[in-house]
Structure to design on (752 residues):
């Protein structure tokens, strides 16, 4: 059990104690972290910390084997709650020095006698523990912590390690502040890094995507949403951390909503706001750091009153005696007999396992921007009103009003809030059964959709394109009897549709919502045999329950369910994922098969908007999606020699289905049935589009409104037909450009 202890003696008047920490998940460091900062200094250790988190190679060298072990352990422990998942060798034997040339990241320690051998390494960050220096090769670009976290961490470490620095310039400095003893100082430094990770990962649970609950939870992390909401899309440090193997392990270990919790879970859920409020008050920072340090210290020393150990030391100069009795040789046979006797005793004894106390993991606060930027767009209320009015005019067939407001609405759609407003308004009209449009309305809606999709960055959360996805299959116009043209045929020229990361993220969001609905309906209707009538909740409380809340309840009940009930729940989830896979296969066919299927040049040219170039560039450079994966050339229509568009679409969709279904635990039989289904769906869709394309070409062009000749007053005459005009900026719009006011409108060319 946590905090258990064992007293023993070797029979030489000694009294020795072994005790286990309270929580296995928290690292045990002794004084190694404090020693590492003493050896290398704050800045150097922070550089090594960033190097390890961004998967660089780190090598320590020292004349002391003990210090090598301590330094490696200290650096690894600073990563908590992340766990290092690459080669970790505190003392590398001489025969294995070639390991230093391996391509994988590592943390390795070597003795200083091999100093000449290691200086030839070009891609390794070398730390000299005895000299207190680190060497970063020129070829390595070391990403650093984002501001203001970097400055705050440096300041907090300085307060702990150099408390006199802040008052060093005072004319009458206060009495010298004594440092904490080395064991407590070690925990205070670790507390600073624990606070750092709580701030860095604030709100991470709101970006978890729940795919399956039973038999084992399957959880993904929506990285692009997290980066976008934190305002760190362009920060390469956090991007590398989220794409790393350590974070993949973090999500799989800490993602489930019902498990044993530790200090980090409480800190990231309840203390982040306190850290933010106190960031400018050194006294409060030190107080909080010491509170955390006390908990870390108690974890390693759960019974401090019992921690007294007695180990007799040799007297001074005893090694200089002439007559020293040699240590008696140990009887190997007797040692082996004792081992076998104790093994026989323990064979029948139950395994000593620590009982885990599981609980619902607190969700914590939502994700917020790291810089506290004001995310409201300047004059956004007016811009949203313009978009709403324009959509209302379109559906009310007020053509003149629509023509007046459409340019302003299209300009407003450069802002994210306006794009979200568009999807919400169009969704309301679909609910009101107003999805059948005439030709003019259809043209306006398509223009607004294309304008919205044009500005959907691959580094955003994909939520705008995902919200438009069902709308493209809802709005349509009738071309002839039995022939309808849907909006998806006119919004295909956007690279987002060939971005596999977008489809994965959208699929996982949809599955999470379906799994939530599955268990909500089971709770309400009491279909599930294990739910008692008294557990039913009012509708309003059910609506507030997130997928994670429901998952926690299901995981709590799982051990008490019968095998038949467990199997039934697994089958229901399997069917949910399978039905969503079929639905998404149809959506992908809609958006990947062009209206004119004869234009196979789309697959061969490298022009902008081309499927292959668009897909490869976006997916390869994208920071989103599953952890530690590179699609390389597997993420687009790479086979340019084969000009059969149907085969290209089938390959793309099959690759997507394979990936998401395998990760979601779908059985091979279901995956094979999907593989057989996809070519048929594509062929049927192409056949349907032939009639749509034929009828769409027969449509007469929409007449543009003509500018009426003005009625002339007596004596007036027209001098010329029109004047070309150029409007120059005069400086008034500079303050409202960019993020605040949308695009710059001037200079602009027009006519009078």
């Amino acid at each position: 059990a946590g905090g258990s202890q064992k007293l023993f003696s070797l029979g030489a008047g000694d009294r020795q104690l072994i005790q286990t920490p309270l929580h296995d998940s928290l690292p045990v460091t002794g004084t190694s972290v404090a020693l590492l900062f003493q050896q290398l200094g704050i800045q150097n250790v922070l550089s090594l910390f960033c190097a390890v988190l961004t998967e660089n190679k780190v090598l320590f060298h020292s004349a002391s084997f003990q210090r090598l072990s301590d330094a490696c352990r200290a650096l690894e422990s600073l990563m908590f709650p992340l766990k290092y998942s690459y080669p970790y060798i505190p003392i590398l034997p001489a025969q294995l020095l070639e390991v230093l040339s391996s391509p994988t990241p590592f943390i390795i320690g070597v003795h200083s006698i091999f100093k000449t051998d290691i200086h030839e390494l070009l891609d390794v960050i070398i730390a000299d523990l005895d000299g207190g220096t680190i060497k970063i090769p020129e070829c390595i670009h070391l990403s650093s912590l984002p501001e203001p976290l970097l400055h705050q961490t440096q300041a907090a470490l300085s307060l702990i390690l150099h408390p006199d620095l802040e008052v060093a310039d005072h004319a009458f400095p206060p009495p010298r502040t004594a440092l904490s003893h080395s064991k407590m100082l070690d925990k205070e430094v670790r507390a600073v890094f624990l606070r750092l990770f709580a701030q860095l990962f604030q709100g991470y649970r709101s970006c978890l995507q729940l795919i399956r609950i039973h038999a084992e939870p399957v959880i993904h992390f929506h990285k692009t949403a997290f980066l976008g909401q934190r305002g760190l899309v362009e920060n390469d440090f956090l991007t590398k951390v989220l794409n790393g193997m350590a974070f993949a392990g973090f999500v799989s270990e800490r993602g489930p909503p019902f498990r044993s919790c530790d200090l980090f879970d409480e800190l990231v859920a309840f203390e982040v706001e306190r850290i933010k409020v106190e960031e400018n008050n050194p006294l409060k920072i030190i107080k909080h750091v010491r509170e955390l340090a006390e908990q870390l210290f108690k974890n390693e020393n759960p019974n401090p009153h019992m921690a007294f150990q007695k180990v007799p030391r040799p007297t001074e100069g005893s090694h200089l005696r002439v007559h020293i009795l040699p240590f008696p040789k140990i009887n190997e046979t007797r040692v082996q007999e004792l081992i076998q006797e104790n093994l026989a005793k323990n064979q029948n004894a139950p395994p000593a396992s620590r009982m885990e106390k599981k609980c619902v993991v607190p969700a914590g606060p939502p994700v917020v921007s790291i810089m506290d930027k004001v995310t409201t767009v300047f004059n956004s209320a007016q811009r949203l009103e313009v978009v709403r009015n324009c959509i209302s005019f379109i559906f009310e067939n007020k053509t003149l009003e629509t023509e007046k407001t459409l340019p302003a609405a299209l300009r407003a759609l450069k802002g994210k809030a306006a794009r979200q407003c568009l999807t919400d308004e169009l969704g309301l009209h679909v609910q009101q059964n107003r999805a059948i449009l005439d030709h003019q309305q259809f043209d306006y809606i398509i223009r607004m959709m294309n304008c919205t999709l044009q500005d959907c960055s691959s580094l955003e959360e994909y939520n705008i394109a995902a919200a438009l996805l069902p709308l493209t299959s809802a709005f349509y116009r009738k071309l002839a009897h039995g022939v309808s043209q849907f909006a998806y045929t006119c919004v295909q020229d956007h690279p987002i549709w060939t971005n596999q990361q977008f489809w994965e993220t959208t699929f996982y969001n949809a599955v999470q919502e379906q799994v939530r609905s599955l268990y909500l309906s089971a709770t309400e209707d009491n279909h599930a045999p294990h739910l008692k009538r008294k557990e039913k909740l009012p509708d309003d409380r059910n609506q507030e329950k997130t997928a994670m809340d429901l998952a926690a309840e299901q995981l709590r009940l799982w051990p008490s369910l019968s095998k038949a009930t467990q199997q039934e729940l697994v089958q229901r989830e399997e069917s949910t994922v399978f039905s969503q896979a079929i639905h998404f296969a149809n959506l992908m066919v809609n958006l990947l098969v062009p209206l004119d299927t004869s234009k196979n040049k789309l697959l061969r040219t490298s022009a902008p908007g081309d499927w292959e170039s668009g897909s490869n560039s976006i997916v390869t450079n994208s920071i989103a999606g599953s952890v530690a994966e590179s699609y390389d050339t597997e993420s687009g229509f790479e086979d340019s020699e084969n000009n059969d568009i149907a085969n290209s679409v089938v390959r793309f969709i099959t690759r997507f289905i394979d990936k998401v279904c395998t990760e979601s635990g779908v059985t091979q039989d279901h995956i094979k049935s999907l593989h057989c289904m996809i070519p048929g769906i594509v062929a049927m869709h192409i056949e349907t589009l032939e009639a749509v394309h034929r009828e769409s070409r027969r449509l007469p062009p929409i007449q543009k409104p003509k500018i009426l000749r003005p009625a002339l007053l007596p004596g007036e005459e027209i001098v010329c037909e029109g004047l070309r005009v150029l409007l120059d900026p005069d400086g008034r719009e500079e303050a409202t450009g960019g993020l605040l006011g949308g695009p710059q409108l001037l200079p602009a060319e027009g006519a009078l």
User: Anything to note?
Assistant: Confidence is low (pLDDT under 50) at residues 373-379, 527-539, 601-643, 736-742.
